[in-house]
Amino acid sequence: MFLPFFGRKPRLTEAQRGRLQALEGSDSAELAAELLRGPTALLQLTLPEARQVVSYMLPMRIPEGNTFIRQGDRQSTDFMVLVLEGEVTVDTIVVSRTQPMVVNVLGKGSLIGEMGLLDGEPRAASCTASSPLTCAILTRRALEELLIDDPQTTAKLMLAVSIRIAQRMRDTSDKLKRYAQLTQTMQHEINRLLPS
Amino acid sequence: MFLPFFGRKPRLTEAQRGRLQALEGSDSAELAAELLRGPTALLQLTLPEARQVVSYMLPMRIPEGNTFIRQGDRQSTDFMVLVLEGEVTVDTIVVSRTQPMVVNVLGKGSLIGEMGLLDGEPRAASCTASSPLTCAILTRRALEELLIDDPQTTAKLMLAVSIRIAQRMRDTSDKLKRYAQLTQTMQHEINRLLPS
Fold it and tell me: Is residue A5 scored above 70 in pLDDT?
């Protein structure tokens, strides 16, 4: 059952009503809507808006071991993945190494590949299902449709997505500060050990 | 002179027409609109849409030496700044240091403080005008008004903002990879130098 839409919702088209009806009774669609809303309080997606977004997403299962995003890929940059169940290993190959370095393990509620969806740049890391995955995919095409059909929900979705990127950006900046500090300490150590 | 609005533009309210009229003949408003559009091609803001955003922004001059964003500030997190003219020094205080470390110098076209605007988290770095600045400010309040008045433009603005954050995120990730590599090399050097 869907709650009625409040406020300034544009009238739904036949196609949109169809999309939403297709979700009815789907537990994973409901889970996707809840996960999409995320933890932020500013201008948050309402649950009906989140359901609206989900109606533009494709449900997908990815088997364990499948690498569904590859570092450096310039072709498949037009989708993002919302993880509903399962775990994803994110790894990256640093120039000096031959073995990839695991940089993150992501679970339920994580958004993956949203930077590529937005800017179309080559993928920055590889993502592999480390357990069987259930997820929902939003393609750039679907995002463009959503933008035309329901701009207010798209605005709030974009806001939610940028908040997630911003939070990752804050984490990465913190790591960078710690590395800057660490290399400074190591440099002192090297200077101390060097024969004078 | 403003170009007519094309496509699915909602009808402008009296207040919106007033906002746009107030910009007419302003070179800095025109510059702000052009800078806001940025370099990205995907779902880009049109020039009329960018002008629409600018009509919700406040023009501001900041004197040289003024620190208008302070690292750790939890109160003034509800605005972002588009630099129209001048230069901004971004610095951050790392735990081990007493002197701030300059992390970036930003000029014309840079967007500053957009992460705070979006997530309301404490400011991650300090920003100081290193020359007299002309800029345009968007407050969260104005963003909320824009979202109600023109959701499609807001959606495209949010997209443009998230693309900028994503690009900074890519740069920061690259730096992090280089640091990871550097500390590894330094660790080898320390091991080599340590008396066995």
Answer: no
Residues of A in contact with B101 (CB under 8 A): 180
pLDDT at A9 over 60: no
Residues of A in contact with B180 (CB under 8 A): 94, 101, 179
> Of A86, A103, A105, A85, nearest to A94 (Cα)?
A103
- Comparing CA positions, the residue from A122, A126, A137, A113 lying closest to residue A62 is A137
Range of the domain at A88: 14-183
pLDDT digits (tens, 9 = 90+) for B61-99: 999 999 999 999 998 889 999 999 999 999 987 665 667
In a domain, B1, yes or no: no
B13 in contact with A, Cβ within 8 Å: no
- Asked whether the beta carbons of residue B42 and residue A118 sit closer than 8 angstroms, the reply is yes
pLDDT digits (tens, 9 = 90+) for B22-54: 777 788 888 888 888 866 555 678 889 999 999
pLDDT mean over A64-71? 95
In a domain, B49, yes or no: yes
Residue A124 lies in a domain: yes
Query: Who among A154, A167, A172 is closest to B176 (CB)?
Result: A172
Chain B nearest-CA residue for A183: B183
Q: Looking at beta carbons, which residues of chain B come within 8 Å of A158?
A: 155, 158-159, 162
**pLDDT digits 0-9 by tens, B154-166:** 988 988 888 888 8
Look up the CATH number of the domain holding residue A25.
2.60.120.10
Residue pairs spanning A and B at CB distance below 8 A: 155
Please tell me the distance from the alpha carbon of residue B53 to that of residue B47, in angstroms, as a whole number.
10
Q: Is A191 on the interface with B (CB under 8 A)?
A: no
List CB contacts of A17: < 8 A, sequence separation 6 or more: none
Q: Is residue B195 part of a domain?
A: no
> Which residues are within 8 A (CB) of B11 and not within 5 positions of it... i.e. 6 or more apart?
none
What pLDDT shows up at residue A90?
93
Query: Domain total for chain A?
Result: 1
Cα A18 to chain centroid, rounded: 26
Per-residue pLDDT for A177 more than 90? no
Give this complex's ipTM: 0.76
Per DSSP, A92 falls in state: E
Asked if A183 and B183 count as a contact pair (C-beta separation under 8 A), the reply is yes
Cβ atoms of residues A55 and A23 within 8 Å: yes
